[in-house]
Amino acid sequence: MAHILVIDDEESILFTFYRFLATGAHEVSTADSYCAALSRMDEEHFDLILADINLGDGWGIDILHEVVRRGLATRVIIMTAYPTGETRAECLSQQAKDYLVKPLGQEALVRSVENALQ
What we know:
This protein is an alpha/beta fold and 118 residues long. The protein has helices at 11-22, 34-43, 60-70, 85-93, 106-117, and strands spanning 3-7, 27-31, 48-52, 75-80, 98-101. A 5-stranded parallel beta sheet has the order 2-1-3-4-5, with helices on both faces.
């Protein structure tokens, strides 16, 4: 069982991804903003973070940078509805475990999470 943080500013995404991942016996926490995510990261250890690129008050790529800056062993998956080659390259160069394009189905999300946790 892994402890996973899902970060997205869309409530429907948080609810859906929580349901997808919690049914797989993972402990799932959510954050609806960049600032809320940083607070959760201060309070808890996460094995995996799924972060949307655009969070309204910050960027998912900055969450990835924060994980690296803090020297955490946390794996990060970046998600976006607006993919570009530039953001994909930056995320993968910063050791993101995956770069997912929304909308995501349950099977694709769970497969990516399981691959990242191995």
